[in-house]
Amino acid sequence: MRKNLKPNIEYAEIFWTHWSVYCVVASFSSVFLLANGYTNTEIGTMIAAGNLVSVAVQPVLASVADRSERFGVFPVSILVTVIVMLFEAVTLILSGRSFLLSAAYVLMFGFQASLQPLLNSMEAKLARRGIGVDYGICRAMGSLGYSVMSAVLGVLVVSAGVRALPVAGEICLLLLLGGLLLLGGRFRKAGSTASAGSPDIKEKGSISMGEFIRRHRVFLVINIGILLIFYDHQIINFFMLQIFQNVGGDSGNMGHYYSIMTILELIPLIGFTWLTKHFRSSFLLKVATIGFVLRGVFMLLAHTPTAMMLTLVVHPFGFPLFLPAVVRYINEIMDEREAVRGQSLYVIMITVSAVAASFSGGVILDTLGADALLWICAVTCVIGAAIILPLLDRAKTDSAKTL
């Protein structure tokens, strides 16, 4: 298998536009919905509902993408993108608080989030057709695209108003659709060439959900640990301002924190292919899990804005390393008939952690305060790591026995 420029550009463009759409739909959701007359409580409820839609939709899409010979990962991704475009068009047409706008936004949020496991699974699907792509660099382009889109939207909203948001969303979705069509066409062409040139290459029978669970029981337990360590990460996403205010900081400190955090995330993502040549994916996942714990503990111990900023020193060893490592790990322990469901399962855990953090974080802050919230985050990280670390190698062994 050799890597060439065109599929890498197409895969990177897919990640760039996907995370640009996420920036429009999720990160600027409050901006758009507040301007349309929604309250903060209603916005929080809609975001939670969108995450729940994603949790419900992802297993269905993953099962279809894994089991259907006709509707593989690329056709399903294209279909989901078109659905999101339709809901985005509704938010462009409608203005003002209404049931239809609320429903369209919740469904758009849910379906857009459900794309992530489909995109993650494409690397393994492409590799099995002899198309080499660098997941780490392509995923890094997603983070970079998110950062650029954040800056662009900040200017657009000021100069053109919130109506610019759904317009920007539709443009990015159209570009995403184009990337999926190009890379999907390359994937189909490689499949037909491989089938014609090698009669041994045949798809195995599909795997039912029951069989999937039987083959990966240890991995299911690992996902409970993933939910727990990501609870801390989601709290940081949702309530970082309150955490900084607790140590005497302000929104300026929060902005600097996020800016530095985004830059640091590019380092392990771009260097991930080099890391995999020297370390096993299970080892990298262990390092990333410990990175989550260290940041949780360091944030608990930080009592000034400067100390809080210094906690970012361990960030590259946590979340941004975990992202490509878990994708590679899942692709290693699962075959092509179940890869999308594997990717979907861990994304569902992250989504559930977001729902739990959004609901519980505010309550804990209002009743117990930021210090108590950081204690809870540190404890959940430690418990999650205690579940994940001893099971990573065992999950690979158990999966191999059932192949």
From TrEMBL:
**InterPro entries in the record:** MFS_assoc_dom (IPR024989), MFS_dom (IPR020846), MFS_trans_sf (IPR036259)
Where can this protein be found? Cell inner membrane
Instruction: State which residue ranges cross the membrane.
Output: 21-39, 45-64, 71-93, 99-119, 140-158, 164-183, 218-244, 256-276, 283-302, 308-331, 343-366, 372-392
Keywords annotated in UniProt? Cell inner membrane, Cell membrane, Membrane, Transmembrane, Transmembrane helix, Transport
GO terms for cellular component: plasma membrane
Domain Major facilitator superfamily (MFS) profile: residue ranges = 218-403
**Known Pfam families for this protein?**
MFS_1_like (PF12832)
* Taxonomy, superkingdom: Bacteria
Topology in the lipid bilayer: Multi-pass membrane protein
**Where is it chiefly localized?**
membrane
Example GO molecular function term? lactose binding
Q: Is ATP-binding one of the keywords UniProt gives this record? A: no
What PANTHER family does the record point to? 3-PHENYLPROPIONIC ACID TRANSPORTER-RELATED, BLL5896 PROTEIN
Q: What is this protein called?
A: Major facilitator superfamily (MFS) profile domain-containing protein
The source organism is Hornefia porci
